[in-house]
UniProtKB/TrEMBL annotation:
It comes from Saccharopolyspora aridisoli. It comes from the Bacteria. The chain crosses the membrane at residues 403-424, 488-511, 531-556, 583-603, 609-636. InterPro entries: NACHT_NTPase, P-loop_NTPase. This is NACHT domain-containing protein.
């Protein structure tokens, strides 16, 4: 039993207990924690749950530190209870039906949440009001001592389509961001599914307003149907419209964040700068106090009520030689929006300029602020075009149009065999020089069809290749057969397309010969010969190559095991895993395809070698890492949309606080920054 007031534990006992009593005054709540079995999970899953809690805690704490929002530096964000039309009946929220006290400021968000007995809370606030930061603070507070054992986790609703059941979507997101939760037990049950089913995850659903407006009503119904504690953040207007069309989230109370007062903004900016620079801010706030009604003061006062804009102003003027007095220039900044745009642009310039002069980054690439903004703009437009918040490395090429993706894939696949043909035959086999680009176009179209379904590329593989005896955590037969069959069918389909492309070309080639020489031999005979040796031969080639590649993929899958809890959770570890599996699959595909085609068609020509080269290249192109390599590491830098060292650039954006990281994906620090970058650069 643990009896706590705030964060101080007054009494503590461990072990098995049936009756518990506290003599005297109860200071706060009595929390009873249970062993793993009582939570509906075994010891191994309890370890995974603890691993998840540690990972989430580290990510939230790291994010607040990178943004300079530690407790002693945090703005005093305050809130009040929202209007009654934005929350459910008190009888469905509180046991006695009496409204609780739902007022407080930044450090008291846990007390406010726990005052809601249904444990369902909606946090409303305008853009830049601090909703996401407050959510991270609540996550950290709840993880200090969780009475239920549940892990609070942030989920970005921008990527949720309400046509998908919310519970299922949450499970998919858990598996994507924390691959070790996809590690099934011998019965096939995945920890992610079990944790959601047992209520061991507390969903913090961030950004209801990011869902397309036409889905808002369905989204509220989907959230209401999720029968478990939860937290939702949203801008007030979007949530209010949805609540008025249907009803507010069932069983949920609602609070709304208030604007920062001018006095609080002044205190924050003065205390976060050096004493020698404080007079510059004093002059700005003196003007705002003495001339509150002129247009300059009204605009700047409106801007400085937003926690986001205040923290940007701190970075722009407290960490650079720039003078905050320029914010009073009404000709340069005639509107509040112009001031906000200036702070967003100046923020990016400040952080990248400071990074380039930081001795810690000596030897690493310097990003010119203008170049960095252009590259960030591409990423922002990529997210906007996909109506997404999550930036995944394996989806970065989806912003390219289909024509570009098909041509680049065709050129890559056709280039490898053409080099081999030229090496062996010089330019004496022109029909072969055209065969493989034709196949490349077919493959490009097949590959692009995968992007068209949901506008996303292939997900990275989460296997570790083992050249030793497998561990006890073997995948269940059902999962293994499902994955192996998927590998076999995809390889077979691609191989068949390859064969038909080759066969079609030779069919046309023999038709040409029939028209040229067929007066003596008979055009009909040439057409029959072209069909049997062209299309039929191509079909046999495709079946042979596809079967060989499929078997190779199954063998590689047999040597792999799922992600383990000991593996790190970040985008680049996932890329490394996918690269290892892809290279193994591509090598196996090249070897088995080349050998099988050679056995069937003979080793007297280079067909087996060409088939092997193409088989390996094809498998590479169909992988997440292959797509990253071709488009993100080559094509996008060639077209100046991203830097050559894209991984380093994204990591720097994260280190600088321009982006945040959630599991295996990145997000812009704030949707306002993303939307600003998606617009043309302002001077």
């Amino acid at each position: 039993m643990r009896v706590a007031k705030g964060y101080e534990i007054h009494n503590h006992s461990s072990g098995q207990s049936w009756n518990n009593a506290q003599i005297g005054v109860n200071h706060g709540n009595i929390w009873l924690t249970s062993p793993p079995g009582s939570l509906g999970v075994d010891v191994k899953q309890a370890e995974l749950l603890q691993r998840l809690a540690d990972t989430v805690r580290e990510a939230s704490a790291d994010g607040l530190t990178r943004w300079g929002l530690r407790d002693r530096d945090a703005l005093p964000v305050r809130w009040r209870i929202a209007s009654e039309d934005l929350f459910d009946y008190w009888e469905k929220i509180q046991l006695d039906g009496a409204p609780p006290l739902l007022e407080g400021q930044f450090t008291a968000i846990r007390q406010t949440y726990e005052a809601v007995e249904s444990r369902r809370l909606v946090i409303l606030g305008r853009a830049g009001a601090g909703k996401t930061v407050l959510a991270h603070r609540l996550i950290l507070d709840l993880l200090k001592n969780s009475p239920t054992g549940s892990v609070p986790m942030l989920f970005s609703l921008a990527d949720w389509n309400p046509s998908t059941e919310l519970r299922h979507w949450l499970t998919e997101r858990l598996i994507r961001d924390y691959p070790f939760l996809n590690y099934p037990n011998p019965n096939g049950a995945k920890p992610a599914e079990r944790f959601i089913a047992r209520g061991l995850i507390l969903p913090v659903l961030d950004g209801f307003d990011e869902i397309p407006e036409e889905h808002h009503s369905a989204a509220i119904r989907g959230i209401s149907n999720l029968d478990m504690p939860l937290i939702v953040t949203s801008r007030p207007n979007e949530y209010a419209r949805a609540a008025h069309q249907t009803k507010a989230v069932s069983g949920a109370a609602a609070i709304i964040l208030e604007d920062i007062t001018l006095d609080d903004a002044k205190t924050y900016l003065l205390h976060s700068t050096g004493k020698t620079r404080a007079p510059a801010w004093e002059a700005v706030f003196t003007h705002l106090r003495t001339s509150p009604y002129d247009i300059v003061s009204r605009n700047l006062t409106a801007v400085l009520t937003s926690p986001l804009m205040i923290t940007l102003a701190r970075t722009v003027y407290n960490d650079t030689p720039d003078e905050p007095g320029e914010l009073l220039n009404g000709e340069r900044f005639p509107t509040a929006e112009a001031l906000e745009n200036h702070l967003l642009d100046a923020y990016l310039r400040a952080v990248y300029t400071r990074r380039n002069t930081d001795p810690q980054h000596k030897g690493s690439p310097n990003w010119n602020p203008d170049q960095a903004r252009r590259w960030l703009s591409y990423l922002a437009n990529h997210l906007i075009s996909n109506n997404a918040q999550d930036l995944a490395w394996w989806k970065l090429s989806t912003a390219l149009n289909s024509f570009t993706r098909i041509l680049v894939t065709a050129a890559t696949v056709g280039f490898v065999p053409i080099l081999a043909i030229t090496y062996y035959d010089g330019l004496t086999a022109p029909e072969m020089l055209l065969t493989w680009p034709t196949y490349g176009l077919a493959l490009g179209a097949i590959n692009d069809a995968r992007f068209a379904r949901g506008r996303m590329g292939r997900d990275p593989e989460r296997l570790r290749i083992l050249f030793r005896s497998r561990s006890k955590g073997i995948r269940p037969p059902k999962t293994y057969l499902k994955n192996s069959w998927a590998e076999f069918t995809s390889a077979f389909a691609v191989g068949l397309a390859c064969g038909l492309a080759v066969g079609l070309y030779y069919f046309l080639f023999w038709i040409r010969d029939g028209l040229t020489y067929g007066l003596s031999n008979g055009i009909i005979d040439e057409l029959a010969y072209g069909f049997t040796h062209g299309l039929l031969g191509g079909l046999i080639f495709g079946i042979t190559a596809g079967t060989a590649t499929g078997i190779a993929n199954i063998l590689v899958s047999a040597m792999g095991e799922n992600h383990t809890p000991q593996d790190a959770v970040n985008p680049w570890h996932l890329l490394k895993m996918d690269r290892t599996v892809t290279l193994a699959r591509s090598t196996a595909a090249a070897a088995t395809t080349g050998l099988t085609v050679g056995l069937v068609f003979g080793f007297t020509n280079e067909l087996g070698l060409l088939a092997g080269l193409v088989g390996g290249t094809v498998r590479l192109m169909l992988s997440a890492w292959g797509t990253w390599l071709l488009f993100v590491r080559l094509w996008l830098p060639l077209t100046r949309r991203l830097p050559w060292r894209s991984k380093c650039f994204l990591e720097d954006a994260y280190d600088l606080g321009v982006m945040r990281r959630t599991g295996v994906v990145y997000q812009f620090r704030h949707a306002r920054l993303r939307d600003h970058l998606a617009t043309p650069c302002r001077t």
